[in-house]
């Protein structure tokens, strides 16, 4: 029997097969899943903000794209993952509320997605699938056996990426 490990908001966890990771309620937040398919190890971070350097209270490293992805990668390698096999999938980054004007400051979801992609690129981790943007929340499940990311969205159904 597979057991499901919950990852809370501003949290991250690493598991191996047969465990499954899940995080609920991704709105503007982004769920970042890193996998080593051969070792059947996966990590998931539920990030809230793009950059820890712009916030004074940045002690929770799992809260930010820049620090959470680095920790996820470190933990995956410690668990036996291989640097050249790790790939990423992301979901979330929605624009949950409508704001007047063209200011990017309020577009947290968009900024989270951009920051996540830039950090993955900088770390040379291939982003192989994504389900981002829109104006709807998502719940995701990360499967360690197949490295499938299941995205559940109210009103938009279920998608496998």
Automatic annotation (TrEMBL):
Biological processes annotated in GO: chemotaxis
Coiled coil: none
Signal peptide: none
GO function term, MF aspect, one: protein-glutamine glutaminase activity
UniProt key word Hydrolase: yes
Hydrolase among keywords: yes
InterPro entries associated with the record: CheD-like_sf (IPR038592), Chemorcpt_Glu_NH3ase_CheD (IPR005659), Cytotoxic_necrot_fac-like_cat (IPR011324)
Catalytic activity, as annotated: L-glutaminyl-[protein] + H2O = L-glutamyl-[protein] + NH4(+)
Keywords of this entry: Chemotaxis, Hydrolase
EC number in record: 3.5.1.44
Enzyme class: hydrolase
Pfam families in the record: CheD (PF03975)
Domain of life of the organism encoding this protein: Bacteria
Family in the record: Belongs to the CheD family.
Job of this protein: Probably deamidates glutamine residues to glutamate on methyl-accepting chemotaxis receptors (MCPs), playing an important role in chemotaxis.
Identification of the protein by name: Probable chemoreceptor glutamine deamidase CheD
Organism: Natronincola peptidivorans
């Amino acid at each position: 029997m597979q057991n499901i490990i919950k990852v809370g908001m501003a949290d991250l966890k690493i598991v191996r097969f047969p465990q499954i990771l899940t995080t609920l309620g991704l709105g503007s937040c982004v769920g970042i899943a890193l996998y080593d398919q051969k070792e059947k190890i996966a990590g998931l971070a539920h990030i809230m903000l793009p950059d820890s350097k712009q916030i004074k209270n940045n002690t929770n490293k799992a809260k930010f794209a820049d620090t959470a992805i680095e920790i996820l990668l470190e933990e995956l390698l410690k668990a036996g993952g291989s640097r050249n096999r790790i790939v990423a999938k992301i979901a979330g980054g929605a624009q949950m509320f409508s704001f007047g004007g063209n200011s990017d400051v309020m577009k947290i979801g968009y900024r989270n997605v951009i920051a996540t992609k830039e950090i993955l690129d900088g770390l040379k981790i291939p982003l192989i699938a994504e389900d981002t943007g829109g104006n709807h929340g998502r719940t995701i499940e990360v499967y360690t056996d197949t490295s499938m990311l299941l995205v559940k969205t109210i009103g938009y159904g279920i998608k496998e990426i």
